[in-house]
Amino acid sequence: MVDGLARAASAHGDPRHAVVVERSTFQPRYESADVIEYAGRHVPAPVRQFIDPALGRLAVPRFGTAEYFAPLVAALRAQPPSIVLAHNAPQLPWLLRNTPHRVVLYAHNELLRTYSRPEATRALRPADGIVCVSRDLAERTRAAVGTENEAKVHVVGNGVDTARFTPRMEGPRGGPMRVMFVGRVVPEKGVDTLLRSAAGFARSELEIVVVGSAGFDSAAPLTDYETGLRALAARSNARVEFRSFVDRTELPELLRSADVLCVPSRWPEPSGLTLGEGLASGVPVVASRVGGIPEAAGPASLLVTPDDPAELAATFRRLLEHPERRREIGWAGRRWAEAHDWSWAWGRLREVLDAAVPGFHAGSPD
């Protein structure tokens, strides 16, 4: 996401971005932005997950979080005044309050579930803006940030890389209709609903490909949920294939090999990059009608009720029986993606930054 925004900013003639990252993470690095590295500081997970939230409820500053971000804050203090886009880090506006930087929280998820309204109000009081990736997430965020911060909340949807993700040009693939899931294989993502939807299909009709792992390590042992999915697949009439987590460089070709991309989430996802990448690939998208997914899916996708394998199966049946409709939906999705690429997203974000921090340049550390 940062790469997409940084490349779009450069294409618009805006200042080059810098990205602040912990030294041992995010390899290999994108070349779209300058890299500011820092040596991370270990803070035990229980401190951040349990002790800090308890302190927050008592109106006591979260010392573990402050300790965790201290090296990052030190690295930013050495930089010229900038707009800092704090990705999923609601603590940074407060921790950078005595620096010359202007801080905009960039929320990709619901970040304030462990915050009381007084704590969220205080933590985000120094923020110049709060950017959310969907209207659904923005509504939930406004309810959490306190009255004085509500006006700071803006919506900037995720863009999509329409240059890397492109449609298959060689015509119909042939064989069973290939329905693909790409993402983390965890209960919230609803892969079990997808597998249950295949019960009424023959192997010659439907093929399901599940791409991903519980985390981002393809060599990690299977979780109980992943093991259960394989047992469910063994009882399915349709053909089911599991592939572990793949590097992003492999995704464009992988998505082009699909006939349908399924996003069967049961939790209110704020947005979803893979969904946009499927649209850009000219693949019909079938997705749950929940959270920010309908906004990201646009009018070219087919929306279904979460946790409803019968409705999902009926949607697959219609697509199977009408391949020309699949092609129409796929190309409509491609047009939607082209209108919502990273250039579009950066243009919207630039407008928000200009309004939130008038007169300040938009070359921003992320």
UniProtKB/TrEMBL annotation:
Residues covered by the Glycosyltransferase subfamily 4-like N-terminal domain: 5-164
Domain Glycosyl transferase family: start-end pairs: 172-336
Source species of the chain: Agromyces flavus
Protein name in the entry: Glycosyltransferase involved in cell wall biosynthesis
Keyword list, A-Z: Glycosyltransferase, Transferase
Keyword Cell cycle set for record: no
